[in-house]
Amino acid sequence: NLRVAAPILVGAVTLIVGVFAACGGGGPAGTPTPSPAPSAGLSPSPDVPTSTPLPPLEPSSYRFLYSEFGVEEDLIWSIDPADPSDRVQLAVVPHGAGWGIKPALSPDGKKIAYNAMPADGLSTATDAETRILDLESGETSVVAEGVDLRTVPRWSPDGGLLFLRRNLGEDVTVILVDLREPEDEEKPPPIRTVLRQHESDVQTYTPLGFDPGEATLYFTQLQGGTELGSYLGRYAPATSEAVATATAIAEATATAGAGTPTPTPTPPPTPPALSGDVFLFLSDQIARDLALSPDASRVAFLVQGLVEGRFLFQVHIADIKAKQVSPLDVVEGLEAGDQLSPIWHPDGDKVSFGQLPSGADPGRVAMVP
């Protein structure tokens, strides 16, 4: 029921997706990072737990894809999970100095969408741009500007739409970029607003992903005003045509409600609110590192709570169908400590997460059902 890996070092890397199908790829093969030599005059402490060797992994046609942070450019790597020394560099991604990227692999495994700060960008909330990298050709195109750097682009299941967070003045929004070939190749892909609320009502949206069997986008919202907390919501059908129709109806309703315009100049009308179905309360804290399971039945996330007299980040699981939220069961052999980055196994039955070092206990990675 539990696999706890050997002690780990937490590096500046970002997992792009859990795994992706192995494909032929160019780029130089990487070399394994050498282990640091032990310091002279020091001997292992008897209080430090000894790591249990892991059984060898079963052969797989899947590879991990991750990005490695650099001051002015990030590197995207592919590795064999059974042999981490089998590492292939797929791309070099330039960005504004000091800013990393937020990448996501397309459903067909051929493209990477990511948010990056341009050289003249200042605000992470409003100045990032979304780019798409074609892994085969190596070409990169900008598909949206003025987006929030701190979120990961979300692909629709067919790879035709990209969902992003954009902050406009006092409004927080989720937009979609229609990546299907436009009639005029010189025009940028159309952008439509999916969700929109004033910041006094909703502080932020975070798109999570799709139900693979339906055109349903799941998202979280951090509530504003006096009802602070994190909530889970959904929007369906999350298609370009449906979003365009819903927006047109909302705008027409808002215009009709304003009455007959007067000759006196008036400020432009306030854009109508666009909200999805917010159906599940997650926590009165800020939920972070959210991950939707492959079958869209559960969401894993972190919230801070009191554990053994300390405030620690712990993994919680939200069951979408049962509409219940519960902390992950206590893991035998794993001491209390800050957990991080829950990620679902492709089979959807297991979730893995990291744990930071704490006292004499080393950092670890655990996988639980």
Mean pLDDT: 80
What's the β-strand tally? 24
Please summarize the sheet with the most strands: 4 strands, antiparallel
Tell me the β content. Answer: 35-45%
Q: Strand-and-helix sequence, N→C? A: EEEEEEEEEEEEEEEEHEEEEEEEE
- Distance between the amino and carboxyl termini: 6 Å
Radius of gyration: 23 Å
Q: Could you characterize the architecture of this molecule?
A:
The protein has 369 residues and is mainly beta. Among the domains are: 1-30 and 57-116, no CATH class; 289-369, no CATH class. It has one helix at 240-257, and strands at residues 3-4, 13-21, 62-68, 73-80, 83-94, 102-105, 111-116, 128-134, 140-147, 154-155, 161-168, 171-178, 191-198, 202-210, 217-223, 229-235, 277-283, 288-292, 298-307, 310-319, 324-327, 339-344, 351-355, 364-368. The strands form 6 sheets. It has a 4-stranded antiparallel sheet, with no helix packed on it. Residues 38-51 have a biased composition (Low complexity).
What attributes characterize this protein structure?
1 helix; mainly beta; 4-stranded antiparallel β-sheet; single chain; 369 residues
